[in-house]
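Hi all, posting the design record for the shared folder.

TITLE: backbone redesign
STEP: 1 of 1
STRUCTURE INPUT:
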């Protein structure tokens, strides 16, 4: 179902072709099975294999490493299409993409040569690990440590909320590394990103590294969300991202910035799907002798929903284009993530209300969307964190002189 909402001006023929291919894939391979797989909390193996064949795992990886070398905009619009089908699938790609992006931007040449070709093919699958059980938004409070013992870094600690924790084979893990950083160094300057290779699966996936089972979630099912426990995990020096310690916080924030554009794109995709379901149901359901779409109360809802879909899409596209042009985009990414996730929640709830009692039934797709939308309010930084970032940047931009 496509109308005139959320169109993007100024795309190249290649971009349009990629998006058209992905939309066909979503309509044929994802939408028909998403709700059933989601209710079973089943990993979408066939869908993931299909996306590998389409080259989606290498979308932003440069051509010299076997990827498609596409822009953040192309990637974000692809994510929007995939999330329209099933948000969990876009999550499987997102963390992989963030790790590939961090490697491309900050990795040593050896690290890029080793990992990126296999990541482009989807053979190595990425996850990234910043959060811990005791910290949410306060990244500077991490307690996981990496200590150099003369031969390797020995990693100890517990991480939380790893998307793809079980299915991934490469995890970018943020730890504190105090050596070489004098007493009193700010916490964010004594953090390091380690590239940890592991087996896919659960339990002890390499000596010193355990991935307990999946965390049972309200929504966002199918994709595995896990903890990660390190107890004497040995990592060689050549697996420090970029080859030097103390840069991890910057690596992660750079990754999260593109991740925020991704979460905005997911919000746009889920909101679009909720609008499609609402506008379709409103034309089929009759009350008082006419389709409910002809009642003004419902038309007003549809008008508000469509306006929110359009506004969120425009802001997401703007944030992606800003990053692609080489400019700093934390303000735009923060605004896009904040607006798209809030609007997504509201559009989904309005579509749910339009469905009336049927919205509460597991037979209707809107029930799944209603449980998925809240994840976007939290992931990649809460609304409050986005507002802090936006507020600080505005004061930098509009500082009065003298």
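Okay, here is what came back for every position:
SEQUENCE:
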């Amino acid at each position: 179902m496509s109308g005139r909402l959320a169109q993007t001006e100024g795309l190249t023929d290649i971009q349009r072709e990629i998006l058209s291919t992905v939309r066909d894939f979503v309509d044929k391979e994802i939408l028909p099975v998403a709700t059933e797989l989601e209710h079973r909390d089943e990993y979408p193996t066939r869908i993931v294999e299909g996306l590998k064949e389409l080259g989606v795992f290498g979308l932003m990886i440069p051509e010299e490493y076997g990827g498609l070398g596409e822009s953040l905009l192309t990637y974000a619009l692809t994510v929007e299409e995939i999330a329209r089908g099933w948000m969990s699938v876009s999550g499987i790609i997102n963390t992989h993409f963030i790790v590939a992006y961090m490697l491309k931007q900050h990795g040593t040449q050896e690290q890029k040569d080793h990992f990126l070709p296999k990541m482009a093919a989807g053979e190595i699958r990425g996850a990234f690990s910043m959060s811990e059980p005791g910290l949410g938004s306060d990244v500077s409070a991490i307690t996981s440590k990496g200590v150099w013992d003369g031969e390797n870094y020995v990693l100890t600690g517990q991480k939380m909320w790893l998307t793809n924790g079980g299915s991934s084979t490469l995890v970018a893990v943020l730890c504190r590394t105090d050596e070489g950083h004098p007493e009193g160094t700010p916490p964010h300057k004594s953090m390091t990103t380690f590239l940890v290779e592991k087996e896919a699966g659960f339990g002890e996936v390499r000596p010193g590294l355990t991935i307990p089972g999946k965390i049972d979630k309200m929504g966002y099912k199918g994709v595995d969300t896990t903890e990660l426990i390190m107890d004497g995990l040995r990592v060689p020096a050549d697996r420090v991202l970029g080859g030097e310690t103390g840069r991890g916080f910057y690596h992660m924030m750079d990754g999260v910035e593109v991740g925020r554009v991704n979460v905005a794109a997911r919000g746009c995709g889920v909101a679009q799907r909720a609008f499609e379901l609402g506008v379709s149901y409103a034309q089929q359901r009759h009350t008082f002798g006419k389709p409910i779409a002809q009642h003004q109360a419902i038309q007003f809802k549809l008008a508000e929903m469509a306006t929110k879909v359009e506004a969120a899409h425009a802001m997401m596209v703007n944030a992606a284009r800003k990053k692609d042009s080489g400019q700093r985009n934390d303000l735009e990414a923060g605004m896009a993530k904040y607006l798209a996730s809030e609007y997504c929640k509201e559009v989904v709830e309005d579509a749910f209300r339009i469905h009336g009692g049927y919205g509460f039934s597991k037979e209707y797709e809107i029930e799944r969307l209603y449980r998925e939308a809240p994840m976007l309010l939290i992931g990649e930084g809460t609304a409050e964190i986005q507002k802090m970032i936006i507020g600080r940047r505005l004061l930098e931009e509009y500082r009065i002189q003298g």
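COMMENT: Strands lie at 126-129, 145-148, 152-163, 170-176, 191-197, 203-206, 209-211, 225-236, 286-287, 290-291.
Let me know if anyone wants the other runs.
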